[in-house]
Design brief:
This protein has 198 residues and is mainly alpha-helical. The protein is 75% helix and 4% strand. It has helices at 4-7, 23-149, 181-197; strands at residues 15-16, 19-20, 159-160, 176-177. A hairpin with a 2-residue loop joins strand 1 (15-16) and strand 2. The relative contact order is 0.05.
Length: 198
């Protein structure tokens, strides 16, 4: 038995309403199917996006709820700091005045130290002059004493010998020179007289 196709039946997809389908008709049907598929995908994507937006919105709301107490505390802290901030300006001004006073005190100390340095230099000069006068006076007295004693002034200091019994056999005798003040004064007086005679 022959099948319906063999008898001359037409394939139902190739004919619509008794007319054969053109390639354009097939293309339009494919485009409609793709459009339906695209609309379905778009709807699914929008549904997923809406779920994501809802999650983000929920997380943002939770974060805002958590941040609000912190912001309230910061506002309170700022309110508490306002009086302190108002007090900082006078403190800064007072610190500036204190620094200025310290600078002025340091300038005064520098002036005082300069005066002390000048006085110290003057005192050193006076001390040197007094030492010179005292040395000349001692030399003069030494010269007078040596004239009264009748001993001429010697130009060289005498070497003293060690006391008996203080030498050891191991020790070699040493020359130990000692100068007595009378002899030094006499030498200085003799030099002064020689300079005056010239």
């Amino acid at each position: 038995m022959p099948t319906g196709l063999a008898i001359g039946m037409r394939h139902p997809c190739t004919h619509v309403g008794g007319k054969p389908m053109s390639p354009l008709d097939l293309l339009l049907i494919a485009l409609v199917a793709v459009a339906i598929w695209a609309v379905v995908e778009l709807a699914l994507t929008i549904r997923r996006a809406r779920a994501s937006v809802d999650e983000v919105t929920k997380a943002a709301n939770e974060t805002i709820e958590q941040v609000q107490p912190v912001i309230a505390k910061l506002d309170g802290a700022m309110d508490d700091l306002q009086p302190s901030i108002k007090q900082v300006d006078p403190l800064v001004e007072k610190a500036g005045v204190a620094v200025d006073q310290a600078n002025e005190s340091l300038r005064r100390v520098n002036g005082i130290l300069g005066d002390v340095s000048t006085v110290s230099g003057t005192a050193a000069g006076v001390t040197e002059a007094v030492n010179k006068v005292a040395g000349e006076a001692a030399n003069s007295v030494g010269a007078v004493v040596s004239r009264i004693a009748g001993k001429p002034a010697q130009g060289e200091a005498k070497h003293l010998e060690p006391a008996p019994g203080t030498e050891h056999e191991d020790d070699a005798p040493r020359n130990r020179g000692y100068v007595t003040y009378g002899e030094a004064a006499a030498d200085a007086l003799a030099e002064a007289e020689d300079e005056q005679d010239r």
